[in-house]
């Protein structure tokens, strides 16, 4: 029986690096042709108004995952934060995660962390940076900024662990083929302040020169697990963004952000029985 042919990038580490470089050049060429203005300016002084702030626990205990990979993630996040902190995105400019952070390599001090490759959990240099992209995306969802590139995780990889935000609002990143980007469609500059606190918490703020006139809130509805005919469990929900007037509190609009239908890859016995819905 004829085996499936391997992709060029799978032949060797050298071939993989060639493929990575090719994808990066293609992305840069598209930006040039489209006239995309990538934000580059950084300043140490914070813009005065906080649009949204958040904090994420870095070292989470995950079933079947070596805790050392979580410890290494703290180092990786700190290195990326040093590139991101203070970045100012002017009106009309686009934020690009990879253009700002650059490729995560061992030569730059990045360590082995947890990465997701074709629904499999593996270790890789720079692993864990998706948590940084997730944080930035969460901040942006609480603003009028326009997300221009986003790649959702398609599977439920772990059971919930101290989750405070709706499931599925994260993003996948892979240099540079899978980027996270947003465009400043407002009339004012915005600024990212990102730092790692005590090696335990990833901290983030989205700031601007003026306060927001509206409030943004994410809500998850119709959350449940269901089993298909083949016995595979899926996690389902609808995630909405509620936009309200800051002064009156009146609802301005309700926007569907995400329709979740994610295959559960962890032990189904860890699913809370009360959250399983039968036909």
In short:
This protein has four helices and 13 strands. The protein has 279 residues and is α+β, with helices and mostly antiparallel strands.
Layout of strands and helices, then pairs:
Layout: H1 13-34, E1 49-57, H2 67-84, E2 88-89, E3 94-96, H3 97-101, E4 112-117, E5 120-125, H4 130-141, E6 146-149, E7 155-156, E8 181-183, E9 190-197, E10 201-208, E11 214-227, E12 233-245, E13 251-264
Parallel strand pairs: 7-13
Antiparallel strand pairs: 1-10, 2-9, 3-8, 4-5, 6-8, 9-10, 11-12, 12-13
Describe the fold and architecture.
This protein has helices at residues 13-34, 67-84, 97-101, 130-141; strands at residues 49-57, 88-89, 94-96, 112-117, 120-125, 146-149, 155-156, 181-183, 190-197, 201-208, 214-227, 233-245, 251-264. The chain is of the alpha+beta class and 279 residues long. The model has no long low-confidence stretch (mean pLDDT 88). The strands form 4 sheets. It has a 4-stranded antiparallel beta sheet with strand order 1-10-9-2. It folds into 2 domains: 1-32, no CATH class; 36-211, no CATH class. The protein contains 4 helices and 13 strands. The radius of gyration is 20 Å and the shape is globular.
């Amino acid at each position: 029986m004829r085996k499936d042919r391997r992709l060029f990038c799978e032949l060797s580490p050298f071939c993989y690096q060639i493929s990575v470089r090719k994808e990066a050049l293609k992305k840069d060429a598209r930006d040039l042709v489209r006239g995309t203005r990538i934000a580059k300016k950084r300043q140490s002084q914070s813009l005065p108004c906080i649009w949204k702030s958040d904090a994420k626990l870095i070292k989470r205990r995950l079933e079947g995952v070596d805790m050392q990979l979580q410890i290494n993630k703290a180092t990786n996040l700190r290195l990326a934060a040093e590139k991101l902190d203070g970045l100012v995105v002017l009106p009309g400019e686009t934020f690009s995660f990879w253009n700002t952070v650059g490729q995560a390599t061992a030569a730059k001090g990045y360590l082995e962390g947890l990465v997701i490759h074709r629904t499999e959990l593996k270790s890789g240099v720079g692993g864990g940076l998706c948590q940084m992209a997730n944080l930035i995306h969460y901040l942006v969802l609480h603003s009028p900024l326009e997300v221009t590139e986003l790649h959702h995780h398609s599977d439920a990889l772990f059971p919930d662990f101290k989750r405070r935000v709706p499931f599925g609002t994260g993003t996948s990143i892979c240099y540079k083929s899978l980027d996270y980007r947003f465009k400043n469609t407002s009339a004012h500059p915005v600024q990212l302040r990102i730092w790692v606190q005590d090696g335990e918490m990833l901290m983030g703020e989205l700031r601007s020169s003026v306060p927001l006139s509206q409030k943004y809130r994410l809500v998850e509805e119709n959350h449940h697990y269901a089993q298909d005919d083949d016995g595979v469990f899926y996690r389902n929900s609808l995630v909405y963004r509620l936009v309200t007037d800051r002064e009156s509190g009146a609802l301005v609009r309700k926007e569907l952000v995400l329709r979740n239908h994610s295959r559960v890859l962890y032990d189904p016995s860890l699913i809370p029985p009360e959250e399983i819905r039968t036909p």
